[in-house]
């Protein structure tokens, strides 16, 4: 198989970057040069191989489109450091030059063989570039970086672009959709690299994640909703750990070498776990903080509303608290069932008076321990299940639809409700019991003795029917709003999507 060699077309300078179009027959090759120039080469034109002169002539004849300072495309001092094709708009090419990124429609660029009228129009556009006039073929100009741009990348859906610059920052920009090229700043990612950020790219199946590399030998993983990296790996440290492991394995019998090898292997394991989707100190710590904050918030909110919750439980049961462990449902005779007047109606006032007579203010918080005990497992189950189910149900895990998020949220809520339902039974039984301090263990033992394990799940089915739409709407709306806020505001504060569950 012959290899074709392309020389830089005249006026391009040294080739700094290239990008093959992902569209059609994949024969359009974009090149960026040091002398403020870029071009699109048609790989179907010209021969293969040959000497330098024939290769240069072949390259010149295969140039389909040119972008040069002389045509008004770039400033004369700006090298074209990065080029990339828009993944959903076949004819749009993005070029990084100086501190900006420009999007061009290659169908409307002046050709090298264009007539004099086109050449004159291009010259006028070039003369007026400094005055803000758009050159022919330019679709949009993104001027959000504060230093020279080194790399540009567009996510696979063509919605967002990231540009890494000499200041160590990565700018994320909303570039529209399949039909338009917008230009709204989403987030400036910073405080990750100590100097030049050489490159940045989106993760294919997690487009909210950006990975960047810099001349400080650091690789950073970013979440677009946060301005600082969620994880950072120092290549030098990883290489040193790897070298230490290799050296220890070659040493063989020395105990110190073996220990060093174990330590190095542990370091590599930790590094590999961090590089994975689910591991890493950055993400693990973040998850722990979310669960802790959600648990504390849920415990505080449940404790604050415990008096209302107990009165609500009494009114739902339709009877005032009784001594001893409350049964699963009040015993109602056939005659009582046919005579509504035989049982006094429980009102808000009567329930409150009964609770007060039972033990003063403290009686209003009876059963709150079980209520609070539900918070952490309920929050943890809902959070983990929602993320896992959203990834499993979504056709595109990185961009789940509203319906997919609703379904994942409903199932996650049902899973969480099932896990904590025995505690819900305990809370209800304690709330309907008057006098004394009955522990959760005593209630559970009484239920198991009287009704068996199924007694701890009595009424679960209607509870799941109610929780599915509630949790589905709750988690779906929270997830959608979080993404919308992150896209709308450049400095949006981290919007906590996994709150402590406070529903009853």
Structure commentary:
- This protein has 504 residues and is α+β, with helices and mostly antiparallel strands.
- The protein has three domains: 15-232, Methylamine Dehydrogenase, Chain H (7 Propeller); 236-275; 285-331 and 341-488, Mitochondrial carrier domain (Mitochondrial carrier fold, Alpha/alpha barrel).
- 42% of the residues lie in helices and 20% in strands.
- The strands form five sheets. A four-stranded antiparallel sheet has the order 1-2-3-4. Strands 5-6-7-8 form a four-stranded antiparallel sheet, with no helix packed on it.
- A hairpin with a 2-residue loop joins strand 6 (92-97) and strand 7.
- The longest helix is centred in the last third of the chain and has 30 residues, at 402-431.
- The radius of gyration is 33 Å and the shape is elongated.
- The chain starts with 14 loop residues before the first strand and ends in a 16-residue tail after the last helix.
The number of helical segments is 13
What's the helical proportion of residues? 40-55%
Structural category: alpha+beta
Strand content: 15-25%
Total individual domains: 3
Name of the CATH homologous superfamily of the largest domain = YVTN repeat-like/Quinoprotein amine dehydrogenase
Low-confidence stretches: 47-55, 113-131, 252-285, 324-341, 490-504
CATH arch. level architecture of the largest domain: 7 Propeller
CATH fold description of the largest domain: Methylamine Dehydrogenase, Chain H
* Biggest sheet features: 4 strands, antiparallel
Would you tell me the overall average pLDDT? 74
